[in-house]
Write a structure and sequence with these properties.
heterodimer; A: mainly alpha; 73% helix; 0% strand; B: 0% strand
Chain lengths: 249, 68
């Protein structure tokens, strides 16, 4: 694992992955959208609103998956003090927050026509809103200190505390049987969904996964560059002739 | 053409289906653009710093910096 945690090696690996993940994301999005909006049937109960599922459910999966990644990266950063894990956690949080936001907004747009309400304090909805707050809190804490290592440390602890919320989100539909329906795909028996609707759902989920990998590489590269620039400014600040950037780019 | 307007109408749920897709696209593309833009800006600054360092580090730089 440590072989891939070296920044130079990461840059090479990321450079090899990036064109593929970007290309696959574009391709899967186009095919997925075709199936989601055109080539799949309306639901017999929900009519055309079922199409909201093809962005809502993949966004929800990614919201949980990215948070699990964030918690793992934070644990590695805290225990082994690995700089790349810290930077990865910082790079992941805005992506996870975006997916969670997409999940909440599309869920609201689906809830209004089908449940007759934009929002209800159902266990699933509430726990996802809390997940969103953990992401936002992580972003805020990371940037709250002048010393970036202190911000990273505090945010990592928050990320681990928030991991308790993940099983609550996942099982909320079974523990409190209120309004949100239980899982249709990740069941012990076969998925309770017709292949004509499973196809666009899985295609969009893969597109979202590809998007995550692509944007994570871009953001992680930016974090590595920023760290180099910070180190340069520090060494230059200590006596060397000032070649520090003047404009606050 | 009738087929197309039926499709756009989304069985009467156009006001919920289309905004879902539009907001999803806007948020995801927005984050991608911001991430790319930040990376380009950082790389450009790093490249400028390298050039200045190689050019023998003038004591004071003007705001524009040396041209390559």
């Amino acid at each position: 694992m440590h072989r891939f945690a070296n920044p130079a090696r990461f840059q090479r690996l990321a450079g090899a992955i990036l064109p593929w993940s970007a290309g696959l994301t574009a391709l899967l999005s186009i095919v997925g959208l075709w199936f989601a909006l055109v080539a799949s049937p309306p639901d017999y109960q929900q009519s055309e609103t079922v199409r909201i599922m093809y962005v809502h459910v993949p966004a929800a999966w990614m919201a949980l998956f990215v948070y699990a990644n964030l918690a793992i990266a934070s644990a590695i950063g805290l225990v082994w003090k690995h700089p790349l894990a810290d930077l990865a956690a910082k790079a992941m949080a805005p992506i996870g927050a975006t997916f969670t936001g997409v999940c909440l907004i599309t869920g609201s747009l689906w809830g209004q026509p089908m449940w007759g309400t934009w929002w209800v304090w159902d266990a699933r909805l509430t726990s996802v809103l809390i997940l969103f707050f953990f992401y936002v809190g992580h972003i805020a804490l990371t940037n709250a200190f002048d010393d970036p290592t202190r911000g990273t440390r505090a945010a990592a602890v928050l990320a681990l505390v928030g991991a308790v919320n993940l099983p609550i989100v996942k099982f909320s539909v079974d523990w409190w049987n209120t309004l949100h329906q239980p899982a249709s795909i990740t069941r012990l028996d076969a998925p309770a969904i017709h292949p004509s609707m499973l196809t666009p759902l899985l295609l969009m989920a893969l597109a979202f996964l590809g998007y995550y990998v692509t944007v994570l590489i871009l953001r992680l590269r930016h974090e590595i560059v920023s760290r180099k620039l910070r180190a340069l400014r520090l060494t230059q600040g200590m006596g060397a002739p000032a070649i520090v950037e003047q404009e606050g780019t | 053409m009738a087929d197309f307007s039926t499709w756009l109408a989304m069985g009467g749920y156009a006001a919920f289906v289309w905004p879902s897709y539009a907001i999803t696209a806007a948020l995801l593309i927005g984050l991608l653009v911001v991430s790319l833009w930040n990376l380009r800006r950082g790389e450009a600054e790093l490249a400028r710093n390298d050039r200045v360092a190689r050019a023998g580090a003038p004591a004071r730089r003007d705001r524009k910096g040396p041209r390559p």
